[in-house]
Amino acid sequence: MSVKSIFRVLITSAIFLLAILLAWSLWQHYMHSPWTRDGRVRAEVVNVAPDVSGQIVALPVRDNQLVKKGDLLMEIDPARYTLALQQADAAVTARKAELEVRKAEVDARRAELNMRRAQARRRADVDALVVSREAREDAGSQVTASQAQLEAAQAQLQGAQAQYQAALSQRDTAKLNLERTKVFSPVDGYITNLNVRRGDYAAAGAAKIALIDSHSFWVYAYFEETKLPLLSIGDRAKIQLINGASMEGHVDSIARGIYDRDNPQSRELTADVNPTFNWVRLAQRIPVRIHLDKVPENVLLASGLTCTVVLEPGSGKQLPVAKN
Fold first, then answer.
1. Phi and psi (nearest 5°) for 203?
2. Among candidate residues 284, 252, 261, 321, the one with its CA nearest the CA of residue 36
3. DSSP alpha helices (H): ranges in the chain?
4. pLDDT for res 16
5. How far does Cα 301 stand from its chain's mean position?
6. How far apart are CA 298 and CA 283, in angstroms?
7. Residue 249: CB partners within 8 Å, gap ≥ 6?
8. Separation of alpha carbons 309 and 295, rounded Å
9. 318 φ, ψ to 5°?
10. Is 61:236 a contact under the CB 8 Å cutoff?
11. How far is CA 256 from CA 260, 265, 289, in A?
């Protein structure tokens, strides 16, 4: 064998060994390093629903628009609620007038009772020869009657006071309903999938607008259960979106439960064991929540984006865990 042939064999063997070492290194990195390509950007979705029912007369927003907290999203027709507030105001006025009448009646009954008592005392002090027994008894009965009339007037006054308070409460409710015809944004965020139009009927409590909270983005990274021993709360994370953008974060929390499709719950709340068994068992993927610490200004985040997450094991032990 010539020297050239031996050299070719050595070169081929070296390349073959290098390929084996590279494949082994990649396999070890894939199997034992805490990283995953199964990551998803998530955000809180706020479902905005009107507190009152009616026709939508104003819709000053458009799909995918950025809105600030307190911006007007839509307005319900206020005509019916304006009339209800006017009726409630009239009811308050009427109940207040009735209350004043009942107060005046109680004052009159109390004055009459005081007068009857004074007359009874004067008759009791006069000699029996001057005022007969029947006259004194008649004065006592008049005091008793006046006392009963005062108690009845006081009861009517309490009823009038209760009705007045109820009228005030109804007026406050009518005023609140009128204010709630305008629906404002509860957070800073983006309008998404806007399907409501001006003129649509909105029912109280039924969501009409969805908002993506612009301050709530995080990443859910789904790690295989074999890599969970390598994870720690607070570990630094490098996130790369599928479009090439990079971000930084840290492990915020690790999910403590996923649904077991092979062992669902029966109608009797007992385990419904699957009689079949898959001989090839794949490692389950556990959701790990990644808090975003650094997001470049030119990175556009949207809920549902795909990303790769690489963790730095042990880095969370030196740094305090940031709070949301």
1. -95, 140
2. 284
3. 3-32, 79-125, 133-179
4. 81
5. 23
6. 36
7. 218, 219, 236, 237, 239, 290, 291, 292, 293, 294
8. 14
9. -95, -25
10. no
11. 13, 18, 11
